[in-house]
Amino acid sequence: MVDEEVPVVIVGGSLVGLSTAVFLGHHGVPSLVLERHRGTAIHPRAALVSQRTIETYRAVGLQAEVEEAAAREFVQNGAIMSAESLGGKELDWYFRFINEGVEDLSPSPRLFVTQIGLEPVLLRAAQRLGALVDYAAEAVSTEQDADGVTVVVRPRDGGPDRSIRARYLIAADGAHSPIRERLGIRRLGHGSFSDSITIYFRADVRALMGDRNLSVIYVFGPRLQGFFRFSIDLQSGFLVVNSTVDDAGARSVRIGEDMSTPTCVRYVRQALGDPEIEVEIENVQRWSASAEYAERMGAGRVLLAGDAGHVMPPTGGFGGNTGVQDGYDVAWKLAYMLDGRAGDRLLTTYSDERQPVGEFTTEQAYTRYVLRLDPALGKENLVPIVEEATVEFGYRYSSDAVVVEPGDDGARWEDPRAPTGRPGFRAPHLPITLGGARSTVDLFGRDFVLLAGPEGGAWCAAAEAVGGALGVAIAAHHADGRMDPSRRFAALYGTGAGGATLVRPDGFVAWRASAPRSDPDAELTRALATALAREA
User: How many alpha carbons lie under 13 Å from residue 37 in its C-beta half-sphere?
Assistant: First the structure.
């Protein structure tokens, strides 16, 4: 017996699950979110929200609301640095200002906002867009067949089980994902390397902070290694402890074995650099620092997202952001498949595109962890660090939904400060003048978009004809002098004066022509059909 039917069930309703529900709702797809906890986050976990993630929230109309939530929690655009202790010797500055040097990459900023502040914004948006969110609800079994997935849901506060039938299931159920385990999907990477703790405490740190605007402080002290974040009033915060050194000089990463209040008070005082400061411990959480990624991002109609697909240490702040991008990629694909605009083969491109991104980003976070926090793990075989902007913006999607150009070198990453506009990469930000849009980024998010060079009017006519023939909306824009006052579009996007580019709903380039074609309708038909896994 089936009690309910929905297009998509999302198991896990924290940052990634709620974001995915918002993105699906933006595309007109209702979802049911099952979360075993009884409400939104009560601990301020992920805090650094990348420009690319804010772009996704911008696309669904949430950027301003997220900025307001962020401003309530932190002074924005702070620094990330390291010190022996908050009141002690400063060691290194990774960012003097978190948005320094990246302002021209996007109309959206990097923000600091915890999941306590962000998740209620996402919950309200998801509900406005048609999602149902069930808290204290546990998915005790999932069974899929050729037509869909059946989920048995058990209320944690009592009551009968119920059976949910969905076309697709998204497992955003965390690092220890039972759904991933039942699918038999292996995890690769470096495993666990620290039994860490997060100490939530109250202490007046205003004198120790001084006039510095510090968003994240890495602590590399003689007795403790970890990092701090503080509330906006500097009266509370949390300290992550990854390793310690005892009186005899022996180093330990088994921090979670002693979470007593006296020990935690000592840790906080050591990291603050004040042995007498009054400290009140509010809560202590034990967790495993690890760097692992799934060998594939799903099986059949069950897809992994967030920590279920990749777990990484917090160095770099990549984890939650990578999960949100999972949701952004899968949402448009499911929406197009559910109403028949795309073929079923489009589903396979989700893992093809997102698994390599999860792998690379996890390795980037691990390298940073080793170099910043634990060189004893060994520096051999580390991937070379690329800067944070490249991790956020520079990755490339390689799948059957992308039309690769002849002679392409197969590069998987590029510097977003020198974007090429090639298929598979994010369509770069360019300030424009077009109605309410002030960036090319503002044109993406729901439909396919064709952008034609200043002499590419024939492509715009082709977009209307091809979209009508295939039953897929294509928003076409002619980058003339009115839209593109700087006249940079043709060079930035690589279309030349008479070419065009086709951008997917997620803002990634699906196809590009660098010159006019004798039969633009046929060319564009093939490109759109490829992007949708359909026959031309």
Answer: 12
